[in-house]
Amino acid sequence: MRLSRYFLPVLKENPAEAQIVSHRLMLRAGMIKQQAAGIYSWLPLGFKVLKRIEQIVHEEQIRAGHIPLLMPTLQSADLWRESGRYDAYGPEMLRFKDRHDREMLYGPTNEEMITDIFRAHVSSYKELPLTLYHVQWKFRDEVRPRFGVMRGREFYMKDGYSFDLTKEDALHAYNRHMVSYLRTYERMGLTAIPMRADSGPIGGDNTHEFLVLAQTGESEVFYDAKVPELKLGDREVDYDDRAAVAAICEEFTTLYARTDETHDEAVFNQIPEERRCVGRGIEVGQIFYFGTKYSEAMGATVSTPDGTRVPVEMGSHGIGVSRLLGALIEANHDDKGIIWPEGVTPFHCGIVNLKQGDAATDLACEGLYKALVAKGLEPLYDDREERAGAKFATMDLIGLPWRITVGPRGLANGVVELTSRRTGESEELSAEIAVARITEIYAGK
Ligand code: 5CA
């Protein structure tokens, strides 16, 4: 993409309404525009990152054997009356009537709808296990939408629903989700800690939240200092191997890590004092096992091998896709702007032309641009007639992990400059080697 032809409405001033850094930087970098309280347009740069996050979520869900579909945002009230949640949900649910006076709602979550799909099409244990998921907009009429996309009213969520014959199978589905989530967050360059939590309106008593440590997080968290050091790394995971999946979950959930909802001071105090950490976290996902709460109420049963019928065992599993943008920025920024991890960056690198209009410099930039595109990469070429300082400031603000700077002086010596946004370190090298370096960095990402 050439910046002169892109739509990147960056703001020079700090927007007064933004209280936390991720909200401020998303507005300043031209990623989002507020349309009403807690409701945003996703401008091209924000939309690009949102789609990259969504893509990683899909890849890891499909790897775990889960199947994507798409359910609507609007739902009928009748479905929610069947589970008893139409009255129980409260004012967070946006309710309205259509022209025929039928009661409708904008879905805050989809347990009822997926159970309806299941009961219409599945009747035998032979069709299990089954996990269906989608990535779709949700609406919750939060009392206090705030912090930009972090606590929105309209937000983008991955929600997955597992169906199994037995509790044991359902707990394997729960574990499979936990491991797939750990992989998902790690690929984005985030450390998200599974913490035992409270289930709220979804129900059930087996639930973990995934929290990214950040000063600005809404939840207070208590954890053993060793927990954030745990990593999946390059481990191959066989999602059908129950024991292996359970062992990973055990590894990540044995040490103390809880939110204020489930915190137990006495247990916490058994950790050696120097390892006791109290901090704040952003909840970027939650998994629930709730058994037959919905299947029983809505008549979703399956036949068993001995010919009887039982309500299907269920769980639901969510990732806050739009909230992740905020969490990623809270965890990756400095005073100049965003620093995208390579796994989610909107463009792979920036190209800054220090002397736009100079024939040799323009030609070198075009050559670099084409060479990167030929490698399957997406560079953002700042080809505007602007001062170098302004170009650097824009690149720093929008946070591309790598920048190639091209100027007449370097070109005279046959070099361009490759700069890391994270460390600020620069290196002079030939354009060919710069392209090879960037290609290598993104290989497999
Ligand atoms: N049905 C279940 C799981 S599929 C469910 O709705 N879970 S949830 O309520 O925990 O939401 C899943 C994730 O969505 C949360 O972990 C959080 O990351 C994100 N989320 C929830 N509310 C908001 C909100 N108001 N704004 C942005 N993200 C949100």
TrEMBL record:
Domain Aminoacyl-transfer RNA synthetases class-II family profile: from-to ranges: 38-341
Compartments in which it is found: Cytoplasm
Pfam families: HGTP_anticodon (PF03129), tRNA-synt_2b (PF00587)
Binding partners and assembly: Homodimer.
UniProt catalytic activity: tRNA(Pro) + L-proline + ATP = L-prolyl-tRNA(Pro) + AMP + diphosphate
Protein name, UniProt field: Proline--tRNA ligase
PROSITE patterns: AA_TRNA_LIGASE_II
An example Gene Ontology molecular-function term: ATP binding
InterPro entries: aa-tRNA-synt_IIb, aa-tRNA-synth_II, aa-tRNA-synth_II/BPL/LPL, Anticodon-bd, Anticodon-bd_dom_sf, Pro-tRNA-ligase_IIa, Pro-tRNA-synth_IIa_bac-type, Pro-tRNA_synthetase
UniProt enzyme class: ligase
Family to which this protein belongs: Belongs to the class-II aminoacyl-tRNA synthetase family. ProS type 2 subfamily.
Gene3D superfamilies according to UniProt: Anticodon-binding domain, Bira Bifunctional Protein, Domain 2
EC numbers, comma separated: 6.1.1.15
One GO CC annotation: cytosol
Function: Catalyzes the attachment of proline to tRNA(Pro) in a two-step reaction: proline is first activated by ATP to form Pro-AMP and then transferred to the acceptor end of tRNA(Pro).
Keyword Cytoplasm: yes
Natural source organism: Rhodobacter maris
Keyword entries, A-Z: Aminoacyl-tRNA synthetase, ATP-binding, Cytoplasm, Ligase, Nucleotide-binding, Protein biosynthesis
Record has Ligase as a keyword: yes
Biological-process GO terms, alphabetical: prolyl-tRNA aminoacylation
